[in-house]
Design a protein that fits this description.
Largest sheet: 7 strands, mixed
Number of domains: 2
Low-confidence stretches: 123-127
Number of helices: 2
Helix content: under 10%
Oligomer: single chain
Distance between the termini: 32 Å
Shape: elongated
Radius of gyration: 24 Å
Length: 238
């Protein structure tokens, strides 16, 4: 049985023996995870070199304790081979929760000078400045985008987006929840961001958190954990 820490992902390695041939006769390898109560299966590329198969599995969103995994090969002449299968147990060793939501009350300023009816430009700038808390929490979300943007990120390894100020944005409290978006998003960027605690508006009962976008920094390629392209996960080379 294989054990997977779904919060961290895992690198798997298999030694294989190809009787009557060599690695060059295999054109594709794939590692598949199947879970109960899920309509889809998760598939990852299995890279074959010198009789060794390597598979990189990212963090997963699995809401069950166990499932099955399979290692499959396809030869150059399109023959299919199911070479190995095993039960798999899903574990989560690391859990991150928001301990407390802090709110900063803004006290009204009362002027003793009755003749001072106009605010100076300097006063207005000071009032509108966003003060971020030094305490932050790591939160996650998927930014839905088009195929052109995804291809640009993959080819140029560049991405920059400035969040619109004053918008309520929903984040996940766990990176494993990003995989929920595989069912309804064909193209997207899955990101992780450090959010100031005083930027948090509301914690929902479904493990999502509402954040004031005014407290968010720019989103760039360093925030991207992985990419969803045509319903599949692709890890970004950094």
């Amino acid at each position: 049985m294989i054990k997977l820490d779904i919060g961290k992902g895992k690198s798997l390695s298999f030694d294989i023996d190809i009787e009557g041939g060599s690695d060059s006769e295999i054109k594709e390898g794939r590692f598949i995870i199947s879970c109960k109560n899920k309509k889809y299966k998760l598939m990852f590329e299995a890279i074959i070199k010198d009789g060794v198969v390597n598979v990189e599995i990212p963090p997963l969103d699995i809401n069950t304790d166990s499932g099955k995994c399979f290692l499959e090969m396809i030869s150059n002449d399109n023959q299919y081979y199911s070479v190995w299968e095993s039960p798999v147990k899903f574990e989560r060793n690391l859990k991150i929760k928001v301990k407390e939501q802090k709110e900063v009350d803004k006290k009204p300023v009362v002027s003793l000078n009755e003749n001072k009816t106009k605010e100076t430009k300097k006063d207005k700038i000071k009032e509108n400045k966003i003060i971020k808390s030094s305490e932050t929490v790591m939160l996650y979300r998927t930014i839905k985008c088009d195929e052109k943007t995804i291809n640009k990120v993959l080819s140029e390894n560049e991405f920059l987006m400035k969040p619109k100020s004053g918008v309520r944005i929903k984040f996940y409290e766990s990176d494993s929840m990003l995989l929920n978006d595989l069912e309804n998003i064909n193209f997207g960027l899955c990101i992780g961001m450090s959010v100031p605690e005083n930027g948090i508006i509301k914690e929902n009962g479904d493990h999502t958190i509402i954040v004031n976008s005014s407290f968010l920094d720019d989103i760039n390629v360093n925030n991207v954990l992985y990419i969803i392209k045509e319903g599949q996960i692709i890890q970004l080379k950094k």
